[in-house]
Amino acid sequence: MIPIFQSVALTHRALDYHLERQNVLASNVANVDTPGFRPLELVREDVPTEAPGTLRLETTHGAHVGQSGDATRPFVLTESEEQVVNPGNDGNAVSLEREMSKVAANNIRYEGAVRIVRSQLGLLRYAANDGH
Predict the structure, then answer these.
(1) Radius of gyration (Cα) for the chain, nearest Å?
(2) What is the pLDDT of residues 65-82, one digit of tens each?
(3) Closest by Cα among 42, 115, 48, 107 to 81
(4) Who is most buried in 41, 96, 122, 131, counting CB within 10 A?
(5) DSSP characters over 45-65
């Protein structure tokens, strides 16, 4: 593959990761009052999938946004290791403040990846139009 397209593929993967992570973090926030709920975290594929409590994310329909051709996502859903030291009386371990700071940080990273993609696509457009 041509190096410019490899970098586009890498940023595409970064966008996918941050989008999926946003969904997981939103689920954690939504379950802040659910008794016994433990926050989840999305990690990159280098985490062994055989680890207890991990689930591989998959695309369930060909029309869903994702990697074309390969239905397996390069991310693993696992229980967050940053557990609250003292869960509430109902066993809920979600710290709203921590989850919201993760949401904000994830949003900043996503926006950074979007800027990189725009720049890469602008360079491709410039090259395709012979520098015009």
Answers:
(1) 18
(2) 544 444 445 677 777 766
(3) 42
(4) 41
(5) TTS-TTSTT-EEEE--STTSS
Q: For residue 11, which of 128, 123, 118, 122 has the smallest C-alpha distance? A: 118
∠ at Cα 79 (107, 114), nearest 5°?
Answer: 20
- State the helix-helix crossing angle for 3-30 and 96-128, rounded to 10 degrees: 160
Reply yes or no on whether the pLDDT at 89 is more than 60: yes
| Angle ∠(99,41,104) on CA atoms, nearest 5 | 35
State both tokens at 17. Answer: 């990761």
What tokens were used for 2?
């041509």
Helix (H, G, I), strand (E, B) or coil at 23: helix
Contact 16, 73 (CB under 8 A): yes
The pTM score is 0.68
What are the φ/ψ torsions at residue 69 (nearest 5 degrees)? Answer: 90, -40
**The residue type at 91:** G
